[in-house]
Amino acid sequence: MKVKQSMIGLHPYQPGKPMDEVKRELGLDEVIKLASNENPYGASPEVAKAVNEAIAQVAVYPDGYARLLRQKVAEQQNVKEEQLIFGNGSDEVILILCRAILSAGDNIVTAVPTFPQYKHNAVIEGTEVKEVPLADGVHDLEAMYAEIDERTKIVFVCNPNNPSGTYVNEQAFTAFMEKVPEDVLVVSDEAYFEYVRAEDYPSTIPLLDKYKNLMILRTFSKAYGLASLRVGYGIGHEEFIQAVEPGREPFNTNSVAQAAAIAAIDDTEFLNGCVQQNAEEMIKFEHFCKENNFPYFPSEANFILMSVNRPGGEVFDKLLHAGFIVRNGEALGFPEYVRITLGTPAQNDKIRAELLSWLK
Ligand SMILES: *Cc1c(COP(=O)(O)O)cnc(C)c1O
C-alpha cells in the first residue's frame, strides 16, 4: 500500500513529552510539564459538573452542529450562528480549511517559525508553502504581502505567534487586510486571545464586516483549560463558512466537550483569575530574564521563549533531569532558546531557581 506523494517525508506531530513517561524513564517522583501551553490552574469547577452530566449520554451521538455551544459563542462574540464553524480543537478547523480550499499548484503564505499545523496540512494537500521569516520575532506582514501571487489561497497570521509569543498590532494588521486581494483568505489564529494584554492588539471580529476574506480561530484548549476535550472554532463571513462546512466530519465535536465549553464560557470569574495570574507570572519571568541578561521575546501569551545563552537542547535536557518538561527551541526554529509555558507561581519559582542554580 502506498500513501499519496505529498505524505512522503512527513512526520506525525511531536507533542511535549508526557509526564508519566518522563517519570518512568528518569526515575523521578515529581515532574512539572510546562511544554504545551496548557492552563496550569486546570478548568473551571463548573466544567467538572457539566462533564459529569454529559457522561450520562455517552451512548448517544453528539449534536454535530453543536447547537447550544453555537448559540453561546454567537452571543459571547456578537456574531451570527451561521458565522461559526466548530472543530475537534482549532487544529481541526485548520485541517478543514486546508481540505476545503487547497489543491496542488496553490500556495499558502506563513511566517517562520510559527505554529506547524498550517504547513503540515497544506503539504498534505500538495500545496506549496511560502515561509517568511519573522522580523525581530514578529510577523513581517509587508514581506508576507510581497509573497502573495495569483496562486495564493491562504495567509496564516498566528497572533500572538506560537512559539515567540509576539503579536501583530492593530495598525499593521488592518494595513495588511486593506491590501490583500479579496480572494485570498487571511486566517488570524488567536489561540491565546484571552491572555493578550497589549492595548493595540487588533480586534478582528468587527473587521469581519469589512473584510469577507478574514477568518478568526479561537480555542478552548488554552486559557479555558479544556485541551484534552478538543474543541475550538472559526469565525468568518457567513457565506464562506457555509461553503466550508461540508468539509467537516458529521460529529467532530463530542457532547462532553460541547457541554464543558458552555460551562467554561459561563465562568468568567475563573477565566479572568487565570488570565490575571498569568499576567503577574509573566512580569516575574520578564524581570528574571532582564536581571540575568537572558534574551527573551516579549510575550502576550501564556508561555515565554527565552534563552540562557546555551543551546536549547542542553537546557532542555538539564531541566528534564530536574523534573521540568519544556520545549527545546532547536525543534522550534530558535536553537538558543527554550519555550516555557507559565505554570503556577510555585512551579515558576522552582524552574527559575533550577536554571540559576545550574548556571552558577
Ligand atoms: C495550541 C494552538 C492551537 C491548537 O489548539 P487546539 O484548539 O487545541 O487544536 C492552534 N493554534 C495555535 C497557535 C496554538 O498554539
TrEMBL record:
<protein>
    <recommendedName>
        <fullName>Histidinol-phosphate aminotransferase</fullName>
        <ecNumber>2.6.1.9</ecNumber>
    </recommendedName>
</protein>
<comment type="similarity">
    <text>Belongs to the class-II pyridoxal-phosphate-dependent aminotransferase family. Histidinol-phosphate aminotransferase subfamily.</text>
</comment>
<dbReference type="InterPro" id="IPR004839">
    <property type="entry name" value="Aminotransferase_I/II_large"/>
</dbReference>
<dbReference type="InterPro" id="IPR001917">
    <property type="entry name" value="Aminotrans_II_pyridoxalP_BS"/>
</dbReference>
<dbReference type="GO" id="GO:0004400">
    <property type="term" value="F:histidinol-phosphate transaminase activity"/>
</dbReference>
<keyword id="KW-0028">Amino-acid biosynthesis</keyword>
<keyword id="KW-0663">Pyridoxal phosphate</keyword>
<comment type="pathway">
    <text>Amino-acid biosynthesis; L-histidine biosynthesis; L-histidine from 5-phospho-alpha-D-ribose 1-diphosphate: step 7/9.</text>
</comment>
<dbReference type="GO" id="GO:0030170">
    <property type="term" value="F:pyridoxal phosphate binding"/>
</dbReference>
<dbReference type="InterPro" id="IPR050106">
    <property type="entry name" value="HistidinolP_aminotransfase"/>
</dbReference>
<keyword id="KW-0808">Transferase</keyword>
<feature type="domain" description="Aminotransferase class I/classII large">
    <location>
        <begin position="30"/>
        <end position="351"/>
    </location>
</feature>
<dbReference type="InterPro" id="IPR015424">
    <property type="entry name" value="PyrdxlP-dep_Trfase"/>
</dbReference>
<keyword id="KW-0368">Histidine biosynthesis</keyword>
<keyword id="KW-0032">Aminotransferase</keyword>
<dbReference type="Pfam" id="PF00155">
    <property type="entry name" value="Aminotran_1_2"/>
</dbReference>
<dbReference type="GO" id="GO:0000105">
    <property type="term" value="P:L-histidine biosynthetic process"/>
</dbReference>
<dbReference type="InterPro" id="IPR015421">
    <property type="entry name" value="PyrdxlP-dep_Trfase_major"/>
</dbReference>
<feature type="modified residue" description="N6-(pyridoxal phosphate)lysine">
    <location>
        <position position="222"/>
    </location>
</feature>
<dbReference type="InterPro" id="IPR005861">
    <property type="entry name" value="HisP_aminotrans"/>
</dbReference>
<comment type="subunit">
    <text>Homodimer.</text>
</comment>
<dbReference type="InterPro" id="IPR015422">
    <property type="entry name" value="PyrdxlP-dep_Trfase_small"/>
</dbReference>
